[in-house]
Amino acid sequence: MKLNVVETLLVNNPVRDLLMRRSVAWLHAAAGGATVGRALEVGCGQGSGIREIARRLRPPAIDGFDLDERQVARARAHVAALDGVPVRLWVGDAERIAAPAAAYDAVCEFAILHHVPGWRRALAEIRRVLRPGGRFFFEELSIEFFRDVPLVSPFLRRFTVHPWDTMFDFPTFRRALDDVGLRVTALRAPFVPGWHWGVAVRA
Q1: Are strands 87-91 and 195-202 parallel, antiparallel or unpaired?
Q2: Sheet order of strands, 87-91 included
Q3: Can you tell me the distance from the alpha carbon of 32 to that of 114, in angstroms, rounded to the nearest whole number?
Q4: Which of 83, 75, 95, 18 is nearest to 55 (CA)?
Q5: Model pTM?
Q6: How distant, in Å, are the alpha carbons of 75, 81, 203 from that of 78?
Q7: What is the DSSP letter of 46?
Q8: Taken in order 163, 143, 113, 5, is the CA torsion positive or negative?
Q9: Which of 76, 82, 170, 186 could form a disulfide with 199 if both were Cys (CB 3.0 to 4.6 A apart)?
């Protein structure tokens, strides 16, 4: 699902950029601090994630896509100054990733899958485009975040648009990772219910 005006403001701001820097730093450390090969970001937004992937994971090339063409345009402007890392961006759908099987050493997504009605299909696609042994880096929000956080949850339920009928709780998401062949090797719940950072490896 595309973001509405409120959600666009929530993700395109310096506070969100700071939180993403913290999450990518932890994910990088949790994966042993190693650099990665070719990387993909699912739901690239305005490009902040791509900049952090380049800074921390140091892949030789980064691809990224987003369902919203306006966000892809922002990302193109945001990553234009990246030196030495080729970046390829397109408008695309997480349920049908426009990439060959086993194309990436790392796939990253930062709070995107809870927006996707067919999130199980998106997980299967992430597994498909990862090479065997490749890593899936995720930051994800589950239904607990939209239900159990005082003050924040009522605001989000009222003013944001999500596929409420299909959104997962975190135990369901964790089982789905196992089901598609993504084995969790590191996991952290940093601050509030329903917000998780994790690393999984393609079997």
Answers
A1: unpaired
A2: 87-91, 62-66, 39-42, 104-110, 130-141, 195-202, 182-188
A3: 27
A4: 83
A5: 0.94
A6: 5, 7, 34
A7: T
A8: positive
A9: 186
Q: Provide, rounded to the nearest whole percent, the portion of the chain with pLDDT above 90.
A: 80
Q: What is the DSSP letter of 167?
A: P
- Tokens 């090339």 map to which residue? 61
Tokens describing residue 183: 């084995």
CATH 3.40.50.150 is the classification of domain 5-202: yes
Our measurement of the distance from residue 131's CA atom to the centroid of its chain's CA atoms, rounded to an integer in Å, reads 18
CB atoms within 10 A of CB 149: 17
Q: What mean pLDDT, rounded, does the chain reach?
A: 94
Give the residue among 101, 115, 165, 105 at the shortest CA–CA distance from 137: 105
Average pLDDT over residues 111-131: 97
Q: How far is the first Cα of the chain from the last one, in angstroms, to the nearest whole number? A: 29
Phi and psi, residue 132, nearest 5°: -55, 130
Instruction: Give the helix ranges, DSSP H, for the chain.
Output: 5-11, 14-30, 48-56, 69-78, 119-129, 143-148, 152-159, 170-180
